[in-house]
Design a protein that fits this description.
Blueprint (H helix, E strand, L loop, with lengths): L2 E2 L10 E2 L4 H10 L6 H10 L19 H17 L13 E2 L31 E2 L8
Antiparallel strand pairs: 1-2, 3-4
Length: about 140
């Protein structure tokens, strides 16, 4: 149910699992233990475990023209403000495939009839990718 961490340090003594408490309870029950999902959750919590997202702490390599792009954005912003034009600067790093792909969201549908999506996440060369935008009004 757990394995050595290869995501961070292959020499690590830490054990990780990406299974949910429900899947852990099911696997334990199949192994002969009698335990509920709630009990698995309580035991993990009692041992100091919690669901956590990745934390950006490790400094990566700096892009050589990083300052250049911000100087350009600042210059353009000032120019537009000087003409009484609105200025929006939206950081859109994550790109999403356009098409019928699996995502983390869930929606209600008839039992046993989930929405069929592509088996692989390879980009569609005709449709490409998009940077999701944030709805806004002026």
């Amino acid at each position: 149910m757990v394995e050595s961490s290869t995501r961070r340090d292959p020499e690590s003594f830490l054990l990780w699992t990406s299974k949910s408490t429900g899947n852990l309870a099911e696997a334990l029950n199949e192994s002969g233990y009698k335990i509920s999902q709630t009990s698995v959750h309580k035991m993990l919590k009692a041992k100091g475990y919690s669901m956590q997202a990745n934390c950006k702490k490790l400094e990566g390599k700096q892009y050589q023209d990083r300052d250049k792009q911000f100087i350009h954005i600042n210059t353009q912003g000032k120019a537009f403000q000087g003409k009484n034009c609105p200025v929006l600067s939206i950081d859109t790093k994550k790109k999403e495939n356009i098409g019928n792909y699996k995502n983390r969201d869930q929606e209600y549908s008839q039992k046993g009839q989930p929405t069929a999506v592509n088996t692989h996440d390879f980009s569609d060369k005709e449709l490409g990718k998009v940077a999701p935008s944030i709805p806004w009004r002026i």
